[in-house]
Amino acid sequence: MSKLLLPYLFLIIISLSFFILLWRTKTRKYISSQTVASAYDSWTQDKLLERLWGEHIHLGFYPPDKKNVDFRKAKIQFVHELVRWSGLDKLPSGSNILDVGCGIGGSSRILAEYYGFNVTGITISPAQVKRASELTPSGLNCNFKVMDALDLKFEDGSFDGVWSVEAGAHMNDKFKFADEMLRILRPGGYFALADWNSRDLKNYPPSFLEKIVLKQLLEQWVHPNFISIKDFGNIISTNQNSAGNVFTENWNLYTNPSWYDSILEGFKRPNAILSLGPLAIIKSIREVPTIILMNWAFRKGLMEFGVYKCRG
C-alpha cells in the first residue's frame, strides 16, 4: 500500500471509530424538561466543559477579517456583539435583565460587569445555578434561580431587557417560550436572543442523509425539535406583547469556526481532560462526533445560527 494513502486511511479509521462510538452510545433524547436538567447537571458536575471551554458554553463570534482568534475570547466577543446588535446597550446602568438559560452565568456576569445591569439568570439545572453562584464575585449584581423557561415566576413587565443564548433549541413549545419571555418584558424593553435553528424544512425538505444527521443532533444533546429562523421570527412578531418590529439574521459566518475550535481545545488543554481522570477522556470523545455533525450541518446550511431582536 502506498505510504501516501496511510494518513488518509488513518483519518478514515478514526472517523469511523467516532461514528461507531456515537451510534452505540446511549442517546440523550428529549423526554421532558427534566431530561434537559439532568443532562446539564451531569455536564456541569463533571466540569469537563468548563475546564475546556471556560465559563461560556455558547459559540463564539469570529470577525471574518481576523485570523487566529482565541476561542475563549471569541465567546466573550459574542456577548458584546449581540448586546450591540440588539440595542441592549442603550439601556441605562441599573436596568433589570433576565438571562433565560443562563448556564453557569458567563453572559450574566458580562452583562452585569460591563454594562452595569442587574441580572437575574434562570436555568432548569440546579447544578448550573450552584456553579454560577460559586463563580460570581460578591458585589456583582447577578443572582441565579432554578426555573423553567416555559413557566417564568415573574410578574408581567418585570424586566427592562430579556436575553437568551442557545436555550430555545431545548424548548419543546416555541410559542410558550416566546410568550413567557415577552410577557415579562416591559413595554419598550429590549429583547435579544440567539439560537440554533434548522433551515426551512417545509419548503426545503431534508435529504435521507440530512434526516440521519438531524436525528443525531436532536437525540445526542436533548433537543425536542428545531425550527427555522423565519418560523421563530414569525412567532415573536405575532405575539401580542411584541411591537411587531422583529429583526433576524443568520450568524453562521461569524460562529461556525467555534465547532472545530471546541475540539482543538482538547489538544491545546490536554491537562483539562487528563486531570479529571480516565472517564473524562471517554466523555470528551463521546461529544466529538456530534460536534463534527454540527459543524457539517451549519456549514451546509442544514442548520442556521439565528439572532433575533425586538422591542416590547
What does this structure look like?
It is built from 13 helices and seven strands. It is of the alpha/beta class and 312 residues long. The protein has one domain: Rossmann fold. It has a seven-stranded mixed β-sheet with strand order 3-2-1-4-5-7-6, with helices on both faces. Helix 5 (106-115) links the parallel strand 1 and strand 2. The longest helix is centred in the last third of the chain and has 23 residues, at 278-300. The radius of gyration is 20 Å and the shape is globular. The chain starts with 5 loop residues before the first helix and ends with a strand.
List the defining traits of the structure above.
312 residues; alpha/beta; Rossmann fold; seven-stranded mixed β-sheet; 13 helices; 16% strand
Short account of what is shown:
It contains 13 helices and seven strands.
Please tell me the CATH architecture by its name. 3-Layer(aba) Sandwich
Our Rg estimate from Cα atoms comes to 20 Å
> What is the overall silhouette?
globular
Distance between the termini: 66 Å
Given helix and strand content, the structural type is alpha/beta
Write the layout of secondary structure elements.
Layout (H helix, E strand, L loop, with lengths): L5 H19 L8 H13 L2 H6 L17 H16 L9 E5 L5 H10 L2 E6 L2 H10 L6 E5 L12 E7 L8 H10 L1 E14 L9 H13 L8 H9 L9 E4 L1 H4 L1 H12 L1 H5 L3 H23 L2 E9 L1
